[in-house]
Design goal:
By secondary structure, the protein is mostly helical. It has two domains: 18-65, no CATH class; 74-109. Helix content is 65%, strand content 0%. It contains five helices and no strands. It is flat and about 55 Å long.
Length: 114
């Protein structure tokens, strides 16, 4: 049994409200990346550090966005607990290894830590 009736066949797949939501969410993710890049430019100047801050903030923003992007009312944890646990494991591994010099290179080379 369906929890809700099927959508109207004449209705568009994406409504104007969906496009507004997509635009808002992409603006927030972009603003975070540009803000981190601006901070990196001010602190370190143009170079690898500023680029790394922008890339990392965009990546983390997308990971965090994945927790709630599938539903207006439920998070990933309530809708699909195994998927939520997997995503949280990825976030914890990143947070544990990001500040440790050399550890990020070990993960990139495929070293298993258990």
């Amino acid at each position: 049994m369906l929890r809700q009736p099927p959508r109207d066949l004449a209705a568009p797949i994406l409504t104007s409200a969906d496009f507004k939501r997509i635009a808002f969410e992409s603006a927030v993710l972009s603003a975070g990346a540009f803000g981190a890049y601006g901070y990196g430019l001010a602190r370190y100047g143009m170079g690898a550090q500023a680029n790394t801050l922008a890339f990392t903030s965009l990546t983390v923003g997308q990971l965090l966005h994945a927790f709630s992007c599938r539903s207006h009312t439920h998070s990933l944890f309530s809708a699909h607990p195994p998927a939520g646990e997997s995503l949280s494991h990825v976030c914890r591994r990143w947070l544990a290894g990001a500040p440790v010099p050399g550890l990020d290179h070990a993960w990139a080379q495929g070293v298993s830590w258990g």
